[in-house]
Design goal:
The chain is an alpha+beta fold. It has a domain at about 55-140: Alpha-Beta Complex (Sufe protein. Chain: A). It has helices at about 10-35, 85-90, 95-110, 125-140; strands at about 55-60, 65-70, 75-85. The chain has a 3-stranded antiparallel sheet with strand order 1-2-3, with helices on one face. Helix 3 packs across helix 4. The longest helix is centred in the first third of the chain and has 25 residues, at about 10-35. The radius of gyration is 34 Å and the shape is rod-shaped. Keywords: Membrane, Transmembrane, Transmembrane helix.
Length: about 140
């Protein structure tokens, strides 16, 4: 029994083509894995603070009933406004609408009733409005 020796001849051109195609195949697999993997960071889950809806709270100023409406979603205060504010009340208390606009803007930015600033000439109006907003938000808050 004699063993016959086999001689294998590789052509350099074929070796180069094979290496290039193997490299492209590996690159394609890596690219597909990267594209279809979830490389986005998951958003943190926010705790639900409010029951979404529209809540109102009222107060009186010199026998005039005034209602403040607060619109919330599960985590944010979206809108604060007057409901059916009579023209006579708006005329009698001209600082009421600007005071509510000032308070609302600060609340939208901070999503909190803490550290609200106001002008000295709007102190009483602002405090009454803040109490009404706080009352409406108390109705909106989810009780544990």
């Amino acid at each position: 029994m004699s063993k016959k020796t086999k001689i294998v001849v590789f052509h350099l051109k074929e070796l180069i083509y094979t290496a290039v195609f193997a490299g492209l195949g590996v690159l394609l697999v890596i690219l597909l894995c990267w594209m279809f993997s979830s490389h986005e960071k998951p958003e943190p889950v926010q705790e639900t603070i409010y029951m979404p809806g529209v809540y109102t709270a009222g107060f009186t100023m010199n026998d005039s009933a005034i209602e403040v409406q607060v619109v919330v979603d599960s985590n944010h205060i979206n809108d604060i406004s007057f409901v059916n504010l009579e023209e006579s009340v708006a005329t009698m208390y001209p600082l009421m609408q600007p005071a509510l606009s000032n308070i609302s803007q600060q609340i939208y930015e901070s999503q909190s009733l803490d550290n609200i600033t106001y002008e000295a000439n709007n102190q009483y109006t602002t405090e009454v409005l803040m109490m009404a907003i706080e009352d409406a938000l108390d109705h909106a808050k989810i009780k544990p």
